[in-house]
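does this look right to u?? adenosine-5'-diphosphate version
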Amino acid sequence: MANLIKGATGDWEIVVGLEVHAQVTSKAKLFSGASTGFGAPPNSHVSLVDAAMPGMLPVINAECVRQAVRTGLGLKAEINKRSSFDRKNYFYPDLPQGYQISQYKSPIVGEGEIQVDLSPTESIRVGIERLHLEQDAGKSLHDQSPTMSYVDLNRSGVALMEIVSKPDMRSADEAKAYVSKLRTILRYIGSCDGDMEKGNLRADVNVSVRKPGAPFGTRCEIKNVNSIRFIGQAIDVEARRQIGIIEDGGVIEQETRLYDPGRGETRSMRSKEDAHDYRYFPDPDLLPLEFDDAFVEALKAQLPELPDEKKARFMRDYGLSAYDAAILCAERETAAFFEEAALHGGKKRDTKAVANWMMGDLSAYANVHGLSVAEAGLSAGALATLVDLIGEGVISGKIAKDVLAMLLGDDKGADPRALVKARGLLQVNDVGAIEAAVEAVIAANADKAEQARTKPGMLGWFVGQVMKATGGKANPQSVSDLLKRKLDLP
Ligand code: ADP
Ligand code: MG
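got this back:
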């Protein structure tokens, strides 16, 4: 097994289960009409409900419920037709109610499963334990004043989906791939934007170690890890810490820990003995949620095509490799852009070429500018035309690179066909003209031409010279054919 860690007493296996908190995409909060907008001045998005004024009553936001059900469907999970809200009681300055409204015994979504891609051709299945809806807390600000702490309640009451996995992952890489796939699915569905930098997706990481085949060990939970890279680092660091303790004859205490990326270590936050007793009880202000089949079926019917299905269809319909299809389907907008370019004008073109341009020059440009391929500034129609121009022999692939650079630069929005004409970039297919260029190059390099007769590998050099002489516009196939004839090469 590839995933094992070598210890002093033999091999160890890592066991990981994740609790992911995903902020629900919704204009309003879970139980109030206040805005969820990011970056507003502190305490400007706070209703009386969010501030927990006495006598205020929560009213469930139907959009958040729909988003949770849609997500459950995307996770191939059981939708619970009846679920209920509970109060999770604890005191914290950023929690004015003194409790968080969450779902405990009866979550809105039950067991499901995700296919997690470890490489374009290799995947594992990770079980989903449950998905429940809950409120986010506010935020204490300790850096605004030397003597006081402040509280910002803008986030207080924003809807979160907590998505709990089964302990099915066996390495940091598997856990990273899981979060990445979960994020892709959420973004496809549109129920969470997956923005980890804004904290809209964050994970509690449960880690234990065991000897292969042994029962599960005691786990530690690493709270609130907010990047995929840190999730991987935290798992490896924590697993080594646990192995060290066990191999020194100690035992793992179940506890909550924090990962410090600066020091590359996890440290204890609270032990099981200090674990909160949350005194969960059903929230008397909220009725249970009850759906009928028609409600769920309607949401199912409107669900977009999901990443796994899209990838399979791209391989089938466009003849793409698993690798290409996986890259193009990682983001819904990128996949849509590919399809639009591949089928632009109602005809199916060289789809492999469309994929190559997207994954090559176009994504190189997009990456440099921190954009997605679809946002890079080239329309799908323009890419389609570019690919057509090459296919029709109007321009060479080399010239096409220049044309693409123009279309992404000063000639944004131009029609590639018109641009090629206007700039005199048409490929020279005129055999007479190419022959003249070939002869000129051979004449100017008589010594090399002599060598080429015994060293056929020099053909490439000659092709390069002729292309240079013609400003890259000569049809490379004709150049190569003519050179072979004139140099007497096979
Ligand atoms: P709790 O209710 O105490 O939080 P759960 O059963 O809900 O416990 O588990 C929380 C998370 O911990 C889940 O994601 C689960 O997969 C994971 N988990 C449970 N047992 C282990 C273990 N032995 N090692 C690693 N992760 C585990
Ligand atoms: Mg839990």
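DSSP finds 15 helices and 16 strands in the chain. idk if thats expected tbh
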